[in-house]
Amino acid sequence: MSLIENRIHIAAIIALIISMIIWSVSGIAIKQALIVLPPFTMIVMRFVPSVLLMFLIGIISPSHSLSSLQRIELKDLPLFLIAGFCQPFLYYMLETYAYDALNSPTIAETLLSTSPLLSPIFAAIILHERISRNNILGILVSTVGVFVLTLVGAKNYSIGNYWGILMAFSAVSAAVIDSVMMRKTPTKYSSLSFVFYTQLISLMFFLPIWYFKEGPEVLHRVLYTIDETQTQIALWSVGYLTVFASVTAFILFCYALRQIGVTQANAFNNIRPAFTALWMFLFFGEHLPLAKWVGIGLIIVGLFVCQMKEKVSDY
Questions:
Q1: Where are the alpha helices (DSSP H) in 185-289?
Q2: Which of 12, 33, 59, 315 is the most exposed place for a label (fewest CB within 10 A)?
């Protein structure tokens, strides 16, 4: 690997770690927002300003920069449509049904964190990415760490409705397909362009459902009848989800995935539960038994192994 390639790889890893740190806090922000806001209202309030923010950034940025905004050529439109339909729209819908159908939130979170296991399959079939033994070994070790981290000490191991399992894996598949489309999209489109158009397309699917299911009057009623403090916390949470989770993290993830590929990039999704556990330990005093530290260790070791390049034999 040349010096330039090495620097690009390091930059991609840093971008992935930052995006995972941001997304590891998203669950807390979503829970705070949902105390006040209905689900689809929260989603619309999150993605409308994020799309507007990216549009403003895109039109004032220099052309051909990472934050510029290009027009979609007609031949590339199907890639954006598939990506926008898969995530956030389809993923969020399926994720909600999975949480509702499964008895244990722990089981749901564990199933929804299995994208690194499916990524090599989709990447190999659609993109013909070469999957190394280190990639597979690292993903398996890291995934074992996720199971140890999330399941050890859980009180409820009952699965519940098997329909929920199907929904969880369907949600993960939608997220992986979105990653594949991200990789497949021509590099002439900046990372911001990809995220902007896919979120705009997703919003077009969300808006009719929100209008008929919850409606504008719900937003007015909620914001003006709920406790003022709770409303402020909810709005700050939506602001975090808009600026950091929906814009910053997605753009960083898109940049990194385009540099190192679907399999290696999605492997970093395993580190999100580890960061969440650390935040709960540092800021909320949640006790972490030895087994959970072991799980975090396995996740980190697995990520290192996944990123290792295999030596090519001269014989």
A1: 191-213, 216-225, 228-240, 249-260, 262-267, 271-284
A2: 315
